[in-house]
């Protein structure tokens, strides 16, 4: 019997893992189904692989509603994909872009430079790419008979981080004024204190980030990689590195009555620790920034296990469009 116990345990563990995996995939399909719409020429038109700059990754897909004369058609919603800054593509935004375009809005899903062994972008350089994308989208839309007035940003994970940073740093000088931001599971700070096992991040994720031991040398390399600035161990020890990680952290740019935010996060997120989301909520509240926080109580980073909360988000998104686009 003693010999059978390990085998039984392994079998149960394997079966449970398989059931959990299948359940997660099913729930993802269910959550995504909430955004599916009928798509044809009477709804809108997709223009693929437009360029917004000269870089390898600097392309976007544009979704134009069939009617360019409505009030909704004056407003852009720009989606930025996730993927840990090393993967993902604009294709993952198609579902959401078609959903919002079916409601009459112009939408776009953008690619941005990834760490791929050849390219080494920084959070700041990617912020510049988003600015270039907005500029190009505005011009292209005008060519197509759509005169855009303003915009909202929408992003998932790494894309949410970039969307927030763009919204907060370009609120006043964006080619299209940013009226609100929709944040799904986005990192808001690069303070290493929020990237640790104690903060709730998975150990394998820490390994990928190079923060397995949390040493000063690892922290210096982490901040240097994301900031694109030279950061030394001495900078970490002296506290000088704090100014560097703050410069690329969206939460650092929150000001009084700043850009409104719909914030969504999963309680079981082990990729972007929940402590970051709680920090973000606190800072938004302290600065009296209009916001709604949607907590997904059964979900992790992907936000797939709470269909009711997806519906809450959709309702809020409609309300924000009406309120902040002035429709």
Biggest sheet strand order reads 1-2-4-3-5-6-7-8
Whole-Å distance between the termini? 70 Å
The structural class is alpha/beta
Find the count of extended strands (DSSP E, 2+ residues): 8
Q: Helix count, per DSSP? A: 10
Major β-sheet annotation: 8 strands, mixed
What is Rg?
A: 21 Å
Report the uncertain regions. Answer: 1-23
- Along the chain, the helix and strand elements come as HEEEHEHEHEHHHHEHEH
Beta-strand content: 15-25%
General shape: globular
State mean pLDDT (0 to 100 scale).
92
The residue fraction in helices comes out at 40-55%
Describe this structure as you would to a colleague:
This protein is α/β, with parallel strands linked by helices. Helix content is 41%, strand content 16%. The chain has 10 helices and 8 strands. It has helices at residues 4-33, 94-101, 123-143, 158-169, 203-209, 216-227, 233-238, 241-247, 274-286, 307-324; strands spanning 44-51, 59-65, 75-80, 106-110, 150-156, 178-184, 261-266, 291-296. An 8-stranded mixed beta sheet has the order 1-2-4-3-5-6-7-8, sandwiched between helices.
